[in-house]
Write a structure and sequence with these properties.
Largest sheet: 4 strands, antiparallel
Distance between the termini: 37 Å
Structural class: mainly beta
Number of helices: 0
Order of helices and strands: EEEEEEEEEE
Strand content: 35-45%
Shape: globular
Radius of gyration: 15 Å
Length: about 120
């Protein structure tokens, strides 16, 4: 019989996502989005986390971000319930989506990276 087991990778992280190039992106409970290299075979991080977006809003255990396979990153900015949605290209260019500030969460890209889904209002 095969059984699942768990390994704690980071003590201070919310909503982690593994990228295709082997980095673990995660929100910190006190705010901000970070990246750290992750060795899947050893199931451990390699090196120290690096800040990616210090202005990402984190609420409770929700880290509102999504990233495509091509490296396009979308995340929420600020701590207000009504927030802006920011898009960051793989090259670092920042753009704000032309949407009015609103309460949103659970950002996810479509598999091809061309569409963004989100929850409007409180989850």
């Amino acid at each position: 019989i095969e059984r699942d087991d768990t390994t704690q990778v980071l003590a201070q992280a919310t909503e982690a996502e593994l990228t295709d190039d082997g980095y673990l992106l995660f929100g910190h409970p006190q705010g901000g989005l970070f990246a750290v290299e992750f060795d899947q075979g050893a199931r451990k991080v390699v090196g120290a986390p690096v800040p990616i977006a210090a202005d990402m809003a984190v609420s409770s255990a929700i880290s509102p971000f999504a990233v495509t396979a091509r490296g396009l990153l979308v995340y929420l900015v600020g701590s207000d319930p009504a927030v802006r949605i920011v898009v960051q290209s793989a090259g670092g260019r920042l753009d704000t989506l032309p949407l009015p500030p609103q309460t949103v969460s659970y950002l996810r890209f479509s598999p091809d990276g061309s569409r963004l889904a989100l929850t409007r209002g409180s989850a």
